[in-house]
Amino acid sequence: MKTKEALLTTFVLALQMAHVPMVMAQDDLLDDTSSVLESEEIDIEGQFNRPSPADRIEKMRKKLEKQNEQMVQKKIEEKRINSEMELMKDLQKKFRNQAADDGDQVSVRQASTQVVVAAPPAPAKEEKKNRITPYAGLTRFNEACLDGCESKIHAGLAFDTMVSDRFSVGIGLGLTTMSIIDTANTFGQNYYNTGFNVSTTGDEIDYTRVGLDLNSKFFFTVETKLRPFVGVGVGYERASVKYTKKSSQFQNNFGTNSNLGDDSVTGSSVSASGILGAELLLSDSIGVQLDFRYKKNLTNGFGKDSQTTNNSTYLNFNEIVLSNLGTEIQDSSEAQVNLGLTIGF
Asked: Whole-angstrom Cα distance, residue 16 to residue 20?
């Protein structure tokens, strides 16, 4: 019995001696954990939080920027104080001089600073770069019809676009018609040289021309409502000449009489022109345009290159008259005046 009690006592002492180092080890672990949790390098989620060199430089830069801003504000305030002091001294000096003259004493207060706020700039208007212009006018053929002849109808439609502030390019389609009264007696002796004699009471000849032209303009001013310009153009034209009345009778060398028929002759040409004019803006998108043009054909499609009604290369005496007249008109210089309504978009 005593032996069992001795063994039990020995076992209890051994357990107590083994428990002491375990308690000490547990206390050390708790102390280390507390120091780790209180460290700045680990956040609340247990992640590493040491600032990088870039973060430290950024923090330093922000600090310097704040100091610089404070320094600038301080200098501005010092300049304002100096300016106000100088203004106050000037006013005191003036008031003292006035008080000395009047025998009065004047007290001076510092003038308050007035802040002037500039009005916001007006929004810029959007310029209409594209324009379409229906126009009408008059064309005069200077050297044709003995002493010159004028158009009956001269109208067209033009489209222009601004490629820069002062330059524009455009394309136009035009129609020109003219009526000519032929009162010649002997074509072999005048400018309608055909070799046939004619008796006439005044035959009417109709001239019709359709043209397509390209042009470019330079505007001297773009800020004002009145904008003068100069320009050049080149065009391609198709013209036809035909009789519209049958009142004449031709006699050939064999004594045979022939009345004028429905003969017509057509020809093509290439022309060049110079332009001088001005544009007046009535609103942002509406204006009027007036221009003068001098035009000259570079080629002549009548004569041997004429195309007849029946597409024959042989010209009868009627067609010879028309071809000679068409040649004379195309060889003549032209003076044009055009008035149009400009619509911008």
From this structure: 7
Residues ≥6 apart with Cβ < 8 Å to 325? 144, 180, 192, 205, 207, 241
pLDDT at 319 over 70: yes
Reported as a pLDDT band with limits 50, 70 and 90, residue 91 is confident
The encoded tokens of residue 238 equal: 């198709």
The tokens describing 297, both together, are 């054909």
Q: What is the mean pLDDT of residues 144-152?
A: 78
**For 284, which DSSP code?**
S
Taking the whole predicted model, whether its pTM rises above 0.85 is answered as no
Spatial CA neighbour of 207 closest among 254, 160, 266, 165: 266
Asked if residue 258 has pLDDT above 80, the reply is no
Give residues with Cβ within 8 angstroms of 24, minimum separation 6: none
Distance CA 35, CA 38 (A): 5
Rounded Cα distance, 78 and 229, in Å: 57
Which range has the top average pLDDT, 12-26, 121-135, 280-294, 313-327? 280-294
Enter the tokens of residue 36. Answer: 């780790």
Residues 6 or more apart whose CB falls under 8 angstroms from that of 28 comprise none
Q: What is the CA radius of gyration of the chain?
A: 51
Beta-bridge mates of residue 287: 281, 342
Question: Measuring CA to CA, which residue among 231, 201, 205 is closest to residue 218?
Answer: 231
Whose structure tokens read 């290439």? 270
Task: Please give the Cα distance from 204 to 241 (Å, whole number).
Answer: 11
Confidence (pLDDT) at 232: 97
Burial class (CB in 10 A: 0-12, 13-18, 19+), 268: middle
> What is the rounded average pLDDT of the residues 178-200?
54
Task: Spell out the residues 6+ positions from residue 246 whose beta carbon is closer than 8 angstroms to its own.
Answer: 203, 259, 260, 261
Name the strand (E) or helix (H) holding 23: helix 2-37
Other CB atoms within a 10 A radius of the CB of residue 52 amount to: 8
